[in-house]
Specification:
Blueprint: H1 3-6, H2 15-84, H3 90-103, E1 107-114, E2 117-123, H4 125-130, H5 135-144, E3 158-161, E4 171-177, E5 186-192, H6 194-197, E6 208-212, E7 218-221, H7 225-228, E8 245-252, E9 255-263, E10 270-276, H8 277-280, H9 282-328, H10 343-409, H11 416-440, E11 449-451, H12 453-470, E12 473-478, E13 486-488, H13 490-508, E14 514-522, E15 527-534, H14 541-544, H15 564-574, E16 578-584, E17 588-596, E18 621-624
Parallel strand pairs: 12-14
Antiparallel strand pairs: 1-2, 1-5, 3-4, 4-5, 6-7, 6-10, 8-9, 9-10, 11-13, 14-15, 15-17, 16-17, 16-18
Helix pairs in contact: 2-3, 2-9, 9-10, 10-11, 11-15, 12-13, 13-15
Bound molecules: adenosine-5'-diphosphate and magnesium ion (MG).
Adenosine-5'-diphosphate (ADP) binds next to helix 13 and helix 15.
Length: 625
């Protein structure tokens, strides 16, 4: 797929943004679901409650109005009876009729008609005067509201709005009183202020409670002006006598209302209650607004929290990225902070572990590489040395023979004798070097046999005893009696021992005293360790790296050839063993020779140099060859 990376500027959506977005989506969904469900439930509940309440208030108002109006009806009937009673004399009749005014609240005028003609008029002048209306104008005005006497039936009450002025929001009520046969019925008409007499639900501040007549005109209302203006409610539903109450959504002055209407059951009147929707659903609205604010707050909080969280998380990720890049460049020392105990923390932890493991492997690899280079170098030296030795060995033998022959033919007092002696000695030295080189390059055949290290050590000690005592060097040996036999050539092992002990002696001879310890110990991996330790000056680190190289020496010319340890190395290699060095400057040097036990199988190629020996004493650095 070559196309993908070449696509024109793809938008890079960061991890942080993705987290933020998903958190916001989830929070928004959850919050809006909760808000929506709550609002719906609350709305349904509240609507039912408000409708119930409106209907209840209207029913209650209706029953109150019913009580009042039946009382009016009774008073009017009583008034008719009093007027009609023949046994009551004029003055007492007047008194009885006037008494009605005190018993009937809000009654302003009382008229009695017979055959369409007014036969009696009583008027509460106090009320008309208080309203600033003269008796005459009051009478002419109320006379204008004609009453359909014929349609009023016995036992029913006629009620109509007949307002005079804003101060007198009056209504007309009337009853028919039947009389004995042949006489026309009496019509008793009262003019009454129903606003004053019926205190419909005045205690409620939220509800408007009112009473309307058959025409739909308000006859009683908390706000008297609505009666005096003869306001007519257009929305009134036709209400059958069976239905007790109903609730409707209406409108007044552009404001939506919830209205309830109930039959009073007298005079065709109806009681109503209305409440503005804004008032009825105030709690619902404020709940909604609160919910919206809460939701917004939650959203902001979620955004902040998820941003912080995402930042933290991506910070760890970018740390990991940087660390991985550093490791890629070979810097294994990086460690990332473990931020928490969650998966991120686990990732950081395993990353750190991986880094340190890689570090370890890198170190091991480098060491192995160095060892490989070293042994390659040795092999090259060996080959080179063997070639040179071969070429030089025979001419050297010839030279030596010629020197011996020539010196023998010289007379005893010849001054050349001394020169020839030196020539012979130096040629011998050359031959020794050549022999050693050949030994290092494995030119000699090894005939391995089981040998006791104890004997080899004892022989070596005997040979070197004199030499060592000259320089006040003590040689201590500690070889366990039950040490198993090893495989090898006694001569070569003796040479190895001599090389090591003489090196130790040479290192300490300038000081004038010293100790060399030769110890042996059996290992449980089929090998035996033989160590040669001195308390001399030790070998500096840089020198340690090179001591096994052929011709490497720190000694003055003529004193050291630099072949001792190279030969030792070659012998140990040929024995299937190894040699290690541990040395610390100022504290001494210890060479450890590792031999294969006589009984053990040589094929097990457990080359000791490859596995660092944890039991080996480590006074300082350890070098193995
Ligand atoms: N026991 C020792 N103490 C200090 N230095 C030593 C010891 N053994 C070996 N060396 C160092 O290792 C070098 C190489 O030793 P070797 O191969 O025997 O060559 P040579 O003895 O001819 O110098 C020596 O020159 C010396 O610097
Ligand atoms: Mg030496």
């Amino acid at each position: 797929m070559r196309g993908a990376p070449n696509m024109p500027s793809q938008i890079r959506v960061t991890f942080r943004f993705k987290i933020l977005l998903s958190v916001l989506i989830v929070v928004t969904t959850v919050v809006s679901l909760i808000t929506f469900t709550m609002a719906r439930m609350f709305h349904a509940d509240k609507v039912a409650y408000v409708e119930d309440l409106v209907s209840l208030v209207s029913v209650h108002a209706a029953s109150e109005a019913n009580l009042r109006l039946s009382a009016y009806q009774d008073q009017l009937v009583t008034a008719g009876r009093v007027q009609d009673a023949s046994n009551i004399l004029g003055e007492r009749r007047d008194e009885a009729l006037w008494n009605l005014f005190t018993r009937t609240r809000g009654l302003v005028a009382l008229r009695v008609f017979e055959d369409g003609k007014m036969v009696r008029l009583l008027l509460d002048s106090l009320a008309t005067n208080a309203a600033g209306v003269s008796r005459a104008s009051f009478l002419t005005t109320i006379a204008r509201y004609t009453i359909p006497f014929d349609s009023i039936e016995v036992g029913t009450l006629y009620v109509r709005n007949s307002a005079l002025s804003s101060l007198l929001p009056l209504s007309t009520i009337a009853v028919r009183i039947p009389r004995a046969a042949g006489r026309p019925p009496l019509m008793v008409v009262g003019t009454v202020d129903l606003n004053r007499s019926i205190a419909l639900g005045r205690s409620s501040r939220a509800f408007d409670v009112f009473l309307v007549d058959v025409d739909g005109r308000i006859v009683s209302h908390g706000d008297a002006r609505r009666t005096s203006s003869r306001e007519r409610l257009a929305w009134l539903p036709p209400l059958g006598p069976g239905s007790l109450a109903m609730v409707k959504e209406t409108e007044r002055g552009g404001k939506p209302m919830i209205s309830g209407i109930a039959n009073v059951g007298i005079g065709g009147l109806r009681a109503g209650a209305e409440i503005p929707k804004s008032v009825a659903y105030f709690a619902l609205r404020s709940l909604l607004i609160n919910l919206i604010f809460l939701a917004l707050g939650l959203l902001v909080a979620a955004a902040v929290v998820s941003l912080i969280w995402a930042t933290q998380m991506t910070r760890s990720l970018s740390q990991l990225t940087h660390a991985a890049q550093a490791i890629g460049q070979g810097n294994f020392d990086v460690q990332v902070a473990v931020p928490s105990r969650d998966e991120m923390g686990q990732l950081a932890g395993s990353f750190n572990q991986m880094a340190s493991e890689l570090h370890g492997r890198d170190r091991a690899l480098k060491e192995a590489q160095a060892q490989l280079i070293q042994s390659e170098k040795m092999a090259a030296f060996g080959q080179l040395g063997a070639g040179i030795a071969h070429e030089v060995k025979n001419p050297l033998a010839g030279i030596q023979g010629m020197i011996q022959l020539t010196s023998r033919s010289l007379s005893a007092d010849s001054p050349l004798l001394e020169t020839f002696a030196i020539l012979e000695k130096e040629t011998k030295r050359c031959r020794t070097i050549i022999d050693n080189l050949l030994k290092f390059a494995r030119q000699e055949n090894l005939e391995p046999e089981p040998i006791a290290l104890e004997e080899v050590v004892a022989d070596t000690k005997a040979i070197l005893h004199h030499e060592l005592s000259l320089h006040k060097i003590t040689l201590e040996t500690a070889i366990p009696k039950n040490l198993p036999l090893i495989r090898g050539s006694p001569n070569q092992i003796q040479q190895v021992l001599m090389n090591l002990i003489l090196n130790a002696e040479q290192a300490m001879e300038s000081r004038g005293h010293g100790t060399v310890e030769v110890k042996a110990a059996q290992r449980d991996d089929g090998f035996v360790d033989l160590s040669v330790q001195d308390d001399g000056p030790g070998i500096p680190r840089a020198v340690q790296a090179r001591i096994f190289e052929p011709f490497f020496t720190t000694k003055p010319a003529g004193k050291g050839t630099g072949l001792g340890l190279a030969v030792t190395f070659g012998i140990m290699r040929d024995h299937g063993g190894a040699i290690h060095v541990q040395s610390e400057e100022g504290r001494g040097t210890k060479f450890i020779l590792r031999f294969r036990m006589a009984g053990s199988h040589p094929a097990t190629d457990a080359h000791p140099t490859k596995t660092p020996d944890p039991e080996a004493p480590t006074p300082g650095d350890e070098r193995a060859a």
